[in-house]
Amino acid sequence: MPAITVPTPAAPVATAPSGVGGAVEVPVTLGADDLARFKPNELGRIPILMYHAFTTNEAYLDDWTVTPETFSQHLEWLFEHDFYIIPLVDMINNEIKAPPGKHPVVITFDDASSRQFCLIHNDAGDLVPDPDTAVGIMESFFAAHPDFGRGSLFAMVPNNCFQYDDEVVTCEERLDWLAERGYEIANHTWWHENLHTVTGESFREQVGKTKIWIDERVAGRSNLSNVLVLPFGEWPRSEHQVQMLREGFVYGGQDIIIAGVVEVGGGPSPSTSSGKWSRRSIKRINTDPETWSYWTGRIEAGEVTLFTSDGNPATVTIPNELPDAIAGDWDPEWASAYGMEVIRYEAPF
Questions:
Q1: Which residues of 119-158 are buried (b: 16+ CB within 10 A; e: fewer)?
Q2: pLDDT at 14 over 70
């Protein structure tokens, strides 16, 4: 088994009242009957889904673009297979809150393009999300399925900020609307620059300027300005820039500390109680038809061991016997480094 490094717990990325995202309000320790019923395994994998552009014209479809209908079908599949939406900040802070028996899932959107979110006036004159945008579809689905969790992460390119032709609100008003409803805003650089090719000065500007911009506009738990979503999935080429990602740097007179780095691919994320988890290399799954079918097919076939919640963010519950794919991930010191109580049990299957 490869060596597992015990982490030094990081300071929380963001803090706020625990009710955001449909969190479990009164965590309890499961009894024997509940363990047999819910079969928790908090060492399993967590899908973090990645979306980019949306279109109603199928002529514009590619690996980075989906239709509203496809997105709705994805949400239906997740709900039917007992997934529960959690915010990314809960993974980074190692405080996953999902009801017992549910599988956490994180939904992310890159680039802040217009069809992801725009506000329009309804017949009564109220501002509401366009029903054909990602947020409009999610809000409708969340209202119909209150036991599904809610929210998602938007990797922000400030010069986009969901701009569209018929503007009725400002960028700041759009961000306020999202933050008030538990959506997260992360750092995707100022111009969506490929960090593999930029100079050190440009690197600091791309990352640092965006962090400050978000900090000035988004407060509380929705502010993930210190979580960098890598444009094109590209890491800096310069070792000095990689070091700045790890240790921080100064931009505009401010200390810029990056608490999480999100990749483009990699498959389902390891559990936050796994020795393979790293908040500095957070894996995602693209949602093009081929990739979506591959991973959902494997999940339906039982070939992916999913994280199954025990309903208590302060405990890590896993069966005594683990599938081979994740057995080597476990190290009790990993959880105890965060002050987590570890619960092992004999699974009745």
A1: bbeeeeeeeebbebbbbbbbbebbeeeeebbbbbbbbbbb
A2: no
